[in-house]
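Bench notes, afternoon.
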Amino acid sequence: MQSWWMQMTDSGTTLDLRDSPVPSAGPGQLLVRLHAAALNRGEFLLAHGLHGQPGSWKAIGSEGAGEIVTLGAGVAGFDVGDRVMGRCAAAFSQYAVMEANEAMAVPANLSWEQAASIPLAFLVAFDMLVLQGRLKASEWLLVNGVSSGVGVASLQLGKALGASVIGTSGSAEKLAALAPLGLDVALCTRQPDFAPAVLTATGKRGADLIVNTVGGSVFAEDVRALAFEGRLATVGYVDGVVQAEIDLAALHAKRLTLFGVSNKLRSKAQRSAAVPRFVAEVVPLIASGLIEPRIDRVVDFARLADAKARMEDGAHVGKIVLRMPSPS
C-alpha cells in the first residue's frame, strides 16, 4: 500500500510517499480501507511533540473514514464492510488500524470526505465545550482562530448547544464565509486587542468560554475577555508562543478555570472514554444535518504537499481532506 511518512527537524519537514506493508488488526482493533483522511495543523508542528525526536521518520495522519476489511479478536458491534470514521495513527495511508472503541459508524448522509473531517476536530470541540467547558445555552463562546478546523467545529457545536459565538480571524473574507454557520460577532484581528470588543458585544459580561487555537500571544487578552467564572481552553499554539503572562488577580477575583486540551499524554482508555457520549449527543446532530462538516478543500492523495502548504499558509476555512487512491 502507499503511505505518507514525514521527517521533522528543528527547521522544517520532509514528506516521503512510500510503499509500506498493509498493517494487521490486533485484538480490539479494525483494519480499515481508508477512502479519505483529514489534515490537522498540530501534526505538522514540532512544538506539539507528536513525532518524537527531531530527525526521525514517522507515518503520519490522525483521522480518517473508510470501510472495515478485517476485525481483530474480541471486536463486537462491527462487521466487515461497515462504514466507519475515527481517530487513527498513520491515516495518510490506503489502509490503517483503528481502535474499535474509537471507531464510529458513518451517518448515511455523509460523504467519505465529510466523515473523515469529524473525528478529531469535533471530539476536541466536544471535550472543550461540553466535557470541560460546560457550555450552556445563552452563554457566550469566543473562538480565537475561528476559521481553523477545530475553530469551525467549535463554532458549529457551540451554536447547536444554543450559545452565542464570537470569532476572531485576521481575514475578513474568512469571517464572512462563516456567517452562514451562525457566527454572531466577527472580530477581524490577529492582535491581542479584542477584549474591549468582546465586552461590548456581551454587555460588559465577557465570554463564558474561550477556545484558544492560536497560542500564547493571545492568552493574556483572553483572560481579560473572560466573564466571571469564565473558562479558557488552550488547544494549540500555531503562533509558536508557549509562554504567557497570567493575571493572578483576575484569575482569583473572577474565579476562572484554565485548562488544556491534548491527547498527547492520554492512555488509549482515556482517549476513547468520551466516544460513546459523543456518539449519543453529537453524531445525531450531524446525521440530522443540524451540523454539516465544513470542508475547505478536497485534495488528491498524491498532493499532500500542496494540502500541507495551504494549511501552513492559513488559507483554509474548515478542514482540508485527502481523497485516497484505489487499493493496490
